[in-house]
Amino acid sequence: METGISPKLEYNLAGGLALTIRERDFRQLCEGLADSGYRYACALPFRSLTENPLGFPFLKGKGLENLRNCPIQIVHLEEAWNPTNEENIAKAVIAGLLHRKKLFGGIGEFPPPQVWDGLFSSKVTCDGLFEQLYTKIEGVKVISHTFEVDFPSDRLLVEINPGIELSQSEILDISIQRNIGLVFDPSHLLASDKIISVAGEPTKPYKGEWERQFIAFSDQVRVVDINPPSLADEDDLFEGKGSLKELAQAAKEAGKVEFLRVEIPIPIKWQIPGLPSHQEAFDFLQAIGQRLIEG
Fold it and tell me: What is the torsional sign of CA 269, 274, 277, 280?
């Protein structure tokens, strides 16, 4: 039986990252999502929101004016993904192919090159734009992967993840003491040795480790990420079944989850700027949204 608030549908705009570069594509992305039932979104410091989206001095943009008549409300912010030092998009993409080795790598053990890193403006521009978005969008909350950030509690959410290096009880204690809401992503579960049994746990078998951890954190969770760990999970959700459908139902029953944040990326073939096939992506996301909110 559902109690409390009913979570709203949200989309992480980074799922259509190639459509966040040019202003016209960003408008199309937001309009298509709104028409598909998504009224809320998570934003990053996208190129389309800068005054020089492509990094060419002679091509100026409208910057944050692009949000003025946006049909969806930005409710959450995240930082850019490993931006390079290049402003020009062509140079940034090339730099992105080499960037991760410099950031992460010992010899032979660095992640694969990421063109995506180059789809953001330079780190300096991204940092400045992030501050502008935080300042100018009233009530927007930052989603962080750590508690060690300098934002007030009422403007901060922390995503539970293994890299936080805290146990379940430590995360809950900090969250409660500082009144900071949590983000639950079933693809970023804590290691089993970080979880303890709690009083009142059900004696029936869990549907999965996600259920055990969601129950443990549910009183503090404000956002649930819908992030399929595999194509099979995505297909199950499209058909209205499987663990993500069960997680969405658990979020409704918890009564304190404010948003179901869909993080399913739009297939790259549907992100090519200017193509009419974008509608197929919106139709797919609309179906996903309907599966999540239906009983």
Answer: positive
Residues 249 and 243: their CA atoms lie apart, in Å, by 10
Cα 210 from Cα 261, distance rounded (Å) = 16
Total domains present in the chain:
1
Q: 141 in a domain, yes or no?
A: yes
Question: What would the pLDDT profile of 51-79 be if each residue is shown by its tens digit?
Answer: 988 888 777 888 899 898 899 999 999 99
Distance CA 275, CA 263 (A): 22
CA distance 292 to 295: 8
Kindly state whether residue 54 falls inside one of the protein's structural domains. yes
- Helix/strand/coil for 65: helix
222 found inside a domain: yes
Q: From CA 204, how far away is CA 11, in angstroms rounded?
A: 33
In this predicted structure, the answer to whether residue 185 has a pLDDT above a threshold of 70 is yes
Distance from C-alpha of 29 to C-alpha of 280, rounded to nearest angstrom:
12
Query: How does DSSP classify residue 49?
Result: G
Q: Please report whether residue 94 resides in a domain.
A: no
Q: Is the pLDDT of residue 105 over 60?
A: no
CA distance readout (Å), 217 to 19, 159, 174, 265: 34, 11, 12, 26
pTM of the model: 0.88
Domain span at residue 22 reads 8-80+122-293
The one-letter amino acid code at 165 reads E
How far is CA 100 from each of CA 83, 110, 131, 164, rounded to the nearest angstrom? 10, 7, 24, 21
Quick one: tokens of 207? 């549907």
Task: Give dist(CA 189, CA 88) in Å, integer.
Answer: 37
CATH number at residue 173: 3.20.20
